[in-house]
Amino acid sequence: MTTRAGFVALIGEPNAGKSTLTNRMVGAKVSIVTHKVQTTRARIRGVAMEGDSQLVFVDTPGLFKPRRRLDRAMVAAAWGGAADADIIVLLVEAHRGVTDGVERILEGLADLPKGRVVALAINKIDRVEAPKLLALSQDLNERFPFAKTFMISAERGHGVEDLRKWLAQELPEGPWLYPEDQIADLPMRMIAAEMTREKLTLRLHQELPYQLTVETENWEERADGSARIDQMIYVARDGHKGIVLGKKGETIKAISQAARAEIEEFLGRKVHLFLQVKVRENWLEEAERYSEMGLDFKDGN
């Protein structure tokens, strides 16, 4: 049996559907999916099997114009993920077409070493008529020599199987990188923290989600098969703490229930989740917080 294995980097603008596609490919929820931009901070890897090939998806943060240290570290992580991958897939939203952001990404792709396999996946095809799709595909292929173009809907699953099969045959020959039953190489502590952060992001609005982070401080396996998980939510200001807690603690209670339900579903067993909120004014400038998120603090300079 000839086995294949390698890394596939999904790149694109924020909200292009990278996390949704990762989760669809892997068949489980390993990457945070919300309607808010810039929610994928670390390079989350999902592992999918296709025949004798093992595809390891590097779900990079969305590429955008960075303003703050955290933004710069996220963009550096995205390009780092692309540079290290065997195959790169650029996701472009069908209804948005070639935006300034997509043009910047195309320029970045042109700077990568020659010979890198780059595919184009036009996502959310259900939002656009066929002639417009074909025109967009032609325009993008004139701007960059893509190895192959796919029309997909990550959310509905259209075209995803064709993309996965093509990726599987394009990967280099070699032994599998992970055990067959492993779907993500992030420690469970970090996946659980991401799930809680997703619930916070969905519940809270405006800037606040980017001014908070979640860390799993304690994970205790219990004799009855359940797990006790203690997590700390770090916010940048005192006022933010009140927003996260909500009136009479209602907001944090709802977030805790939603996060617990999802972690339980992921683990397939009972979970006791305890959340606390702590004000840490300069967490956006602390190297330790960045390494917790899988980002390089130095890249934010």
Q: What does it look like?
A:
The chain is α/β, with parallel strands linked by helices and about 300 residues long. It has 2 domains: about 5-170, P-loop containing nucleotide triphosphate hydrolases (Rossmann fold), CATH 3.40.50.300; about 190-300, GMP Synthetase, Chain A, domain 3 (2-Layer Sandwich). Helix content is about 35%, strand content about 25%. The chain has 9 helices and 9 strands. The protein has helices at about 20-25, 70-85, 100-110, 130-145, 160-170, 190-205, 240-245, 250-265, 285-290; strands spanning about 5-10, 45-50, 55-60, 85-95, 115-125, 150, 210-220, 225-235, 270-280. The strands form 2 sheets. A 6-stranded mixed beta sheet has the order 2-3-1-4-5-6, with helices on both faces. Strand 4 (about 85-95), helix 3 and strand 5 (about 115-125) form a beta-alpha-beta unit. Helix 6 (about 190-205) packs across helix 8. The longest helix has 18 residues, at about 250-265. The model is unreliable at about 30-40 (pLDDT under 50).
